[in-house]
Design goal:
The complex is a heterodimer of chains A (342) and B (126).
Chain A lengths: L3 H6 L10 H22 L1 H27 L8 H24 L7 H29 L6 H17 L1 H27 L4 H22 L10 H9 L10 H26 L12 H4 L5 H24 L1 H11 L1 H14 L1
Chain B lengths: L29 H24 L6 H22 L26 E4 L6 E4 L5
Antiparallel strand pairs in B: 1-2
The chains are: A mainly alpha (342), B mainly alpha (126).
Amino acid sequence: MVSSNEVAHGNDSAGLRLDGATLFAATFLGCAVVAAVAIGSFPLQASIATIFLFAGLHNWFEFRYFVGRMPLRWGRSTPFYSVAIGGVLTLAGLYWVAYAASGNWLWSNDEWSLFASVWNTLLIAWLVALYCLRKRNAKVEHPWLLYLSVALLLTSLTWFAPLYCSLALVFIHPFIAMWFLERQIRRTKKEWLHAYHLCMAAVPLMLLVLAACLSRQPNLPEDSQLFWKISQHAGSQLLPHISSHLLVATHVFLETIHYFVWLLLIPLVDRRSIPWRFSEIPLLSNRRGLPKLVATVFSVGTLAALALWIGFTVDYSTTRDIYFAAAILHVLAEFPFLIKML
Amino acid sequence: AVIRALQADGAKPGAFFPSSGNDRPSIVNRTGTIIGGVLLTLAAMLGGLWFIRSRKVSTPNLAALTVLLLISGVGTASWVYANAGPPPEARSLTSKILKYGFVTGELQVETTNDSDDIKLILPVAK
């Protein structure tokens, strides 16, 4: 006897069942493989192209997501959001001070190392504070001794090897978006969770394949200042024994996944994050929110993204420098929202 | 490696490694090492305290034994590696030693007519 389910879904036992999760995983893995091959073959060109196309746009999408998740009234989360915003502004401000001072003869290598250590220590302390506030709000018991121990261990590493830890942040940052997506899938598309975990497990394998293929490649040319900056950003100066071809390709590959998570995958799994659904933003759509402020920020953000494209077209190298100086804001802003979702 | 005879400019022939001085690798410095060490010690203390207080530890003896094993392992590793030498590529006389800052300035090559020996003088970093 045939059940209504079998009638509705057809004869699944005969062919491959192509449900949403399988399609998602297949598309993700297929695109990631294509991206890895293209980026591994032309890392410098891929770096220039991906930043040109997606950098400003993905920041706009991130802001759209964050503002959509911001509650109308902070209530018990007031300390959390206050510490979050204060931390973002303070750390970003310190970063900009150092950025403005770069190239100054007063800053020796030791001062740079000291600054990196202090900045990373403040970052870790801020994250620990946010996590403790989050768990206190949720009234969840947590092993604070263990977390403090881990935080102290990480902080000690920032003092032993500060510049390496700063470089590690560059490579860890793309994974934050993947973690965001995982938390979002848990909330809104639970049936895709297993497929997504498989996709995430495939990323380190792809990185290993990239390493195997590119580790013996010669360093990328640094005949222009732009190419030198791209290589240096990926750690070529700190890791001279690793091919800069591999370093740049790895960095661009991870950043590309990061861009597509924000631009495509998060709106795909969370309908509220679809960019044009402004009615889903409580702060904008509710009279008790901040509609004018949010609308103004969206407008400014849109203009900034357009200005970025124009700037990249006119003078890519200078615009890239300005963008990466400003981008620290979005790197820092991701942490509080991720911690809120844990 | 190509040995070039150059004019030494105030360089002193001396030990391969600098005896003291302010030229330290920028990546690791003394202040960072001290602070990092203190933080690492605190991390180990708090981690051990958590482990002992954790409900997963069934008996105090097991906790004590585990801590003892950890301390022994870390202590042994420290004893073995405490006298670590320079990086492998700095242990032989090639041009690669120059990038570690152990020597600086110009090299001096001395030859004599009396023998076939060639003396390479490496100025120590000040």
